[in-house]
Amino acid sequence: MKSLDFTAIYTIWLREMKRFFRARSRLIGSLAMPLFFLLFLGMGFDAAFKFSDMPPGVDYIAFLAPGIIGMALLFNSITSGLSVIWDRQFGFLKEIMVAPVSRVSIVLGKTLGGMTTALLQGILILLIAMGIGFKITGLLGFLSAVICMILIATSFVCLGLIFASIINDMQGFHLIMTLFTFPIFILSSALFPLERLPLWLKYLSYINPLTYGVDGLRYSLIGMAHFSLILDLFVLVCFCIFMISLSTYFFGNVEVD
Amino acid sequence: MEYAIETEKLCKKFCDITAVSNINLNIEKGEILGLLGPNGAGKTTIIKMLATLLKPTSGFAEVWHYNILKEQDAVRRSIGIVFQDPSVDTELTGRENLDFHARMYGLSKEEREKRINEVLDLVELNDRANVFVKFYSGGMQRRLEIARGLMHHPNVLFLDEPTLGLDAQTRHRIWEYIKRLNKAQKVTVVLTTHYMEEADYLCDRVAIIDHGKIIALDKPNNLKNAIGEDIISVQVSDGGKFSDILTKIEFIKRIKLHDDFLFLSVENGEIMIPRILRLAHEEGVFVHSVSLRKPTLEDVFLTFTGRTIREQEASVKEQIRMKAKASMRMGGKR
Fold first, then answer.
1. B147: distance to nearest CA of chain A, Å?
2. Is the CB of B105 less than 8 angstroms away from the CB of A94?
């Protein structure tokens, strides 16, 4: 029952991949928003304000880029976790749930699938940003950024799965996106530094796991951090393990009617 | 006797509506058992509990000697299921859907290819196998799902309205295959259906389900004998009086009275109608209307519940509507 079924994990992952590469328009749509944010918000704010606490040589767009990658990861991975709602709506969830496969394998298959697609999009945005002049610290930084991306994506796919196992309609999906995803994004230091925030907002950011993800990305890519990379990775790994266990628990109790 | 499925006081409640109530059902290995009843009777809920998709509110069941609560994976390995509602991934091709299923059930590469082609042949979808399922017609999707349910050679096969929405030809081919599968490979089959003819043709035994309870369980022939051959319904001015007169006539096997409607079970109904009209004339009973029906599921139902299926479905809908209204009123007060 508890055992891992690698064939099943691969099968579910394979399905996610097929669906991802076939939905070109969805891919373009999910890349467009982060890029608009990066370009227009970045240039707009850079021209309008001077942010203090920026190290010399770091402009706002460089500060913003890791945050936008974090944002893309967050939105794409939660959406792909929540895609279980669609599976439920179209009946395919029954086919998955009735298969003789441990629930943990189903969760891992879904998580790996969602993580892979979110990661691909995160890397794509990074490459596009680099193409338009965003400079990163080096290959080592790139690799540690990818590790951060994997941890962020995995955790939030699981969060999406947990929500999907509780709610079961499209309205619920939009509610989650507005009530959870946006605050997580805005309070993650993706858009502005934490240093000068009012204390209560600062604490809200500190309990937000994505803050550590964005911080880790920012350190890896431009060498600027609020915490240390070790702390960031520690929090991310703990959060990731916690979310995988929690989503397995919730998924085990899913009923399909 | 070896049982494929045993249930003991199986219950399922959704909020306060009891969908399935105290079902005790033993299904023999190798038999085809039909669950017959109107929408909302609880047939699908029973199947979903046995297939581990829903947890019973109380009671328990064993499928292939595995407990549906404690040994879910073993239950899942023993069964195949064809759902009533669509359950295919429309963004994948037909072949990819089957491939997904085969992999999930752990079939080896050779087995996979062999079985996929076999079941595609069976439902005649080979030429459409590499087309996305979203371009399939409703009937084609249905056939694909049936093909999928059969693929991994289950011990027990659940079919929830397997031929709903199929044309007559495909329906008969599916019936033949279910029979052959049952005979040759000793697969136990549990199916739900609206169609009397389907239950009649396929099932060794039929359970009639109403309000989440089994109200009759027998061989189809015995059930049919119980409801008589033909049914003449007569609407008369004085039902009670005419009913008393007709009880003395020996060719009428049974009489049911609902308001001014008399339902008479007879053989060769078309020959009996003139006799009954003559009798009514002689006794001074005025006849408003007469109709003749060959037995249907409705008559089985009427016999066992005293209601027609349509009344029954209306009352279920009514129940849901009342609940919705009640909760709205509660919301308004708050």
1. 13
2. no
Whether the per-residue pLDDT at B249 is higher than 50: the answer is yes
How near does any CA of chain A get to the CA of B104, in Å?
5
Q: Give a yes or no: residue A1 inside a domain.
A: no
User: Of chain A residues 72-91, which have a CB less than 8 A from chain B?
Assistant: 90-91
A246 falls within a domain: yes
pLDDT given for residue A94 in this prediction: 92
CA-CA distances (angstroms) from residue B78 to A235, B61, B121, B131?
43, 14, 24, 30
Q: Looking at the complex, report in whole angstroms how far the Cα of residue A84 sits from the nearest Cα belonging to chain B.
A: 12
**Exposure string for A97-135, b = 16+ CB within 10 A, e = fewer:** bbbbbbbbbbbbbbbbbbbbbbbbbbbbbbeebeeeebe
Does residue A76 belong to any structural domain of this protein?
yes
Largest alpha-carbon pair distance within chain A? 59
Cα B62 from chain centre:
21
* B101 chain-A contacts, CB cut-off 8 A: 95, 99
Number of A–B residue contacts, CB under 8 Å: 79
pTM of the predicted protein model? 0.80
Domain that holds residue A223: 6-252
pLDDT tens digits, one per residue of A58-103 = 788 888 999 999 999 999 999 999 888 889 888 899 999 999 998 8
Lowest mean pLDDT across A36-50, A131-145, A198-212: A36-50
ipTM over 0.95: no
CA-nearest of B23, B26, B27, B28 to B56 is B23
Over range B111-121, report the average pLDDT: 92
Let me know if residue A103 belongs to a domain: yes
Domains of chain B: 3-224 (3.40.50.300), 229-294 (3.30.70.260)
Among the partner residues B51, B100, B148, nearest to A15 by beta-carbon distance: B100
Picking from A15, A91, A99, the nearest residue to B92 by CB comes out as: A15
Given CA atoms B174, B180, B185, B186 in this order, what sign does their dihedral have?
A: positive
CA A228 to chain centre: 20
Give A-chain residues touching B76 at CB under 8 angstroms.
98-101
| Residue B316 near residue B255 (C-beta atoms within 8 A) | no
For chain A, what is the domain count?
1
Nearest CA-CA distance, residue B171 and chain A, Å: 23
* Of residues B220 and B20, more confidently modeled: B20
A96 with B105: Cβ contact below 8 A: no
Most confident of A213-222, B39-48, B118-127, B142-151: A213-222
